[in-house]
Amino acid sequence: MRYLFIILAIFVSLSISFASCSKKDKQIQNTVNTLSDPQNKKDKNLKITIVTSVFTATLVDNQTTSAFEALLPITIQMSELNGNEKFFYLKKSLPTNASIGGQIQSGDLMLYGDNCLVLFYENFNTSYSYTRLGKIENVTGLVAALGSGNVIVKFELE
Predict the structure, then answer these.
(1) Which positions ≥6 away from 69 have C-beta within 8 Å?
(2) CA-CA-CA-CA dihedral for 62, 63, 66, 71, to nearest 10
(3) Residue 81 and residue 65: Cα distance in Å, rounded?
(4) Which residue among 6, 38, 50, 102 is least enclosed by CB atoms within 10 Å?
(5) Measured between alpha carbons, how far is 88 from 80 in angstroms, rounded to an integer?
């Protein structure tokens, strides 16, 4: 009888331990699922207004973008360059993490150097280095909105 009591006590103790571990495992798994679920991702969107056209860019998560967000909202006159981009020199330098060269896509919003904001409206390859800020996903009408000369552009968080 004594051995039966000891075995029962050990069984109850192990059951409680396993239940506790199982509960913690489930909590950890729920946390992992929440962090990895794309629908729980907190993407920040940037509203870009060019004259009367409005575009939405998805911002990347980096130090440069955080520093850029601190400047918003901002309305600037962007200058034309090379028939593929508009640019503006910010008054403040931002942290950078530039990547060398590669494919530029229409709608890419990048930083050249530490203070030159660039919005691309044509696809091309480049050997220049840029730090990515974000991207306009639907570029329909972007070329027409930007036009061929300088243009006033407003950037603000949505």
Answers:
(1) 44, 59, 157
(2) -130
(3) 23
(4) 38
(5) 9
Q: Is the pLDDT of residue 127 over 90?
A: yes
d(CA 142, CA 84): 11
Residue 123 confidence (pLDDT): 97
Burial of 26 (0-12, 13-18, 19+ CB in 10 A): exposed
Instruction: Give domain limits for the chain.
Output: 2-39, 45-157
Instruction: Enumerate residues 6+ apart whose C-beta is below 8 A from 34.
Output: 40
Tokens 């403040």 belong to which residue? Answer: 92
What is the DSSP secondary structure assignment for residue 29, as one 8-state letter? H
Helix (H), strand (E) counts: the chain:
3, 9
As a CATH number, domain 45-157 is 2.40.100.20
Segment 31-61, tens digit of pLDDT = 333 333 333 334 799 999 999 999 999 999 9
Q: Is the pLDDT of residue 8 over 60?
A: no
- Determine the straight-line distance between the first and last CA of the chain, rounded to whole angstroms: 71
This prediction has a pTM of: 0.73
Q: Mean pLDDT of all residues in the chain? A: 83
